[in-house]
Structure to design on (217 residues):
């Protein structure tokens, strides 16, 4: 699938639309304007790719709406710096992964659905993103072998804040996690010291649920 002038124009319009909705960090808006979202959606839906709405990507999962991707990236980027290690839980089609890469982070990402893990790899290679480390596994377990992480972003609705992931957050690091069952509060957790964490809330969103274990062969 080509990145046509029409796609680029729609992407610019989306970036402008998002910047009017919220005062996002400019680098986040630039990343949204650069990553070709139509190359991450299901075949036949590319004409919908630059609407501010979620879209199906298979196995009852979705690519988050651009506003949500921008918000999670914005909240993370307020604390995390370029070249810092960031752990993403829920690779999906890897659109959020690409945004994090455009922000300059060293990205580690976990996906529990085998088919999406493979799709995410394919999408990133197709667009010549060769630096992220993608893993097929249980997001609740994180990646202790690569911890600590300066940033952790969870792209699915967690029933509660996963303690195992908190332990993998570096001191001075930040986690962005939607917490709740039917709808989720966007929660930002900053690790102040080994034992102390602070928390803030940033509105309500709708995510697919965060599930334990893996699925697929």
């Amino acid at each position: 699938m080509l990145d046509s002038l029409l796609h680029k124009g729609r992407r610019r319009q989306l970036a402008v639309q998002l910047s009017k909705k919220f005062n996002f960090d400019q680098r986040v808006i630039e990343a949204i304007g650069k990553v070709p979202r139509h190359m991450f959606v299901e075949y036949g839906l590319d004409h919908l790719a630059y609407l501010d709405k979620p879209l199906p990507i298979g196995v009852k999962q979705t690519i988050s709406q651009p506003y949500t991707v921008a918000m999670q990236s914005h909240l993370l980027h307020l604390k995390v710096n370029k070249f810092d290690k960031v752990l993403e839980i829920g690779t999906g089609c890897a659109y959020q992964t690409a945004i994090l890469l455009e922000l300059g982070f060293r990205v580690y990402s976990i996906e529990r659905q085998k088919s999406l893990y493979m799709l995410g790899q394919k999408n990133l290679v197709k667009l010549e993103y060769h630096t992220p480390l993608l893993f097929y596994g249980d997001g609740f377990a994180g990646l202790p072998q690569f911890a600590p992480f300066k940033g952790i972003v969870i792209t699915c609705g967690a029933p509660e804040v996963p303690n195992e992931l908190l332990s993998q957050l570096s001191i001075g690091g930040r986690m962005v996690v939607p917490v709740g069952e039917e709808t989720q509060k966007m929660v930002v957790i900053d690790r102040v010291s080994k034992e102390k964490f602070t928390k803030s809330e940033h509105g309500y969103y709708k995510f697919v649920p965060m599930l334990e274990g893996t699925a697929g062969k």
